[in-house]
Amino acid sequence: MTDILRVQGLRKAFGGVVVANGIDFSLSTGAMHCLIGPNGAGKSSFFRLLLGEHAPDAGTIIFDGSDITNLRSFQRIRRGISVKFQVPGIFKALSVRQNLEVAFQDHLNGQSLNTKIHEMLDFTDLHAEETTPAGNLSHGQQQWLEIAMAVGVEPKLLLLDEPTAGMSPDETRKTGEMLHDLNARGITILAVEHDMAFVEQIARRVTVLHFGSIFVEGTIAEIIDHPGVQEIYLGTADV
Ligand SMILES: Nc1ncnc2c1ncn2[C@@H]1O[C@H](COP(=O)(O)OP(=O)(O)OP(=O)(O)O)[C@@H](O)[C@H]1O
């Protein structure tokens, strides 16, 4: 299987704070992968480096066979990277439909735009809320709308930063099913997540980030049993 993403020696510091300390990371095409690590490990910074929101001090990012290290964010998005950050990125005063229109209007128009909107309303189970202002949706529905906005443009790689934060157990389970569905449609998924039950539901492999470096990678069972991982979560590891 080919790698959709290959990161080598990625480094970034803000003054004395090193957020990426020579990250080497690969992601197979079609993977469902989780990135975990204690608070401040550098997970969100890693996403911002992948998306081009931070310029790295060193290292390379190869996406889908091309070096994208020096591309701007919009160019990376155009090549097929889509992201949903933790902070909701929906327009709360606009209706569900209008949010989807805003997300897709640069890529689709006319009947194809309408078809895609209906497909995404089905996918999120939000048909009944088509004209509801997005701010009136439940927390889970807002997150699903944003996932739909991120995937309607048919990305190759979807980055999700804590997609289930603040969700009820039911909403979390449903989100896991939606991600499996997207993965089955061919979208590679990399998610930052704290909820280990959710990690278990979606991830085939897990990478642990600690102090801006890859600490260990393995199956969920290997990660849960890894004594070093337990230590870094307890804050006693000397890495
Ligand atoms: N723009 C910035 N300038 C200075 N320091 C930053 C900047 N962005 C992040 N940091 C610092 O880098 C470290 C890593 O932050 P980051 O948000 O990437 O971690 P995280 O693993 O996503 O944490 P959490 O799980 O709490 O979201 C933190 O100490 C943070 O304060």
UniProtKB/TrEMBL annotation:
The keyword Nucleotide-binding applies. It comes from the Bacteria. Keywords: ATP-binding, Nucleotide-binding, Transport. Residues 5-236 form the ABC transporter domain. InterPro entries: AAA+_ATPase, ABC_AA/LPS_Transport, ABC_transporter-like_ATP-bd, P-loop_NTPase. It holds the Pfam family ABC_tran. The keyword ATP-binding applies. Signal peptide: none annotated. GO terms for molecular function: ATP binding. PANTHER family: CONSERVED COMPONENT OF ABC TRANSPORTER FOR NATURAL AMINO ACIDS-RELATED, HIGH-AFFINITY BRANCHED-CHAIN AMINO ACID TRANSPORT ATP-BINDING PROTEIN. This is ABC transporter ATP-binding protein. It comes from Marivita lacus. The lineage of its organism: Bacteria, Pseudomonadati, Pseudomonadota, Alphaproteobacteria, Rhodobacterales.
